[in-house]
Design the sequence.
């Protein structure tokens, strides 16, 4: 399936060590995270535990801690870190000239 890239916002619109929630058409809500090193990651904005909004979580390193019950989710894979279990969907995202682009598949 071909990916269509869509501009989302400026990188600076996402707080460092924070996230921005976006809704694109009929896709599930997505959280785009920004690390201290200005890397960006995109996950479904839904914790694999009980659906907490990951965009409200605390970002540290390349991990987000869910604001509900503190599951730690790897931003690179969407995988809950042990001892927890679960997976949230990852999306392709990149920064081009200071703008954040997300791939829709
Ligand atoms: S809903 Fe995320 S840890 Fe429970």
Sequence:
């Amino acid at each position: 399936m071909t990916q269509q890239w869509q501009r989302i916002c400026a990188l600076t619109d996402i707080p460092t060590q924070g996230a921005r929630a976006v809704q694109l058409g009929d896709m599930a809500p997505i959280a785009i995270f920004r690390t201290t090193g200005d890397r960006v990651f995109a996950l479904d904005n839904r914790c694999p535990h009980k659906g907490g909004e990951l965009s409200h979580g605390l970002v540290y390193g390349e991990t987000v801690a869910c604001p509900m019950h503190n599951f730690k989710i790897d931003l690179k894979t969407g995988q809950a870190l042990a001892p927890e279990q679960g997976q949230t969907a990852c999306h392709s995202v990149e920064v081009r000239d200071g703008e954040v682009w997300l791939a829709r598949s």
About this structure: The mean pLDDT is 95. The CA atoms of residues 41 and 76 lie 7 Å apart.
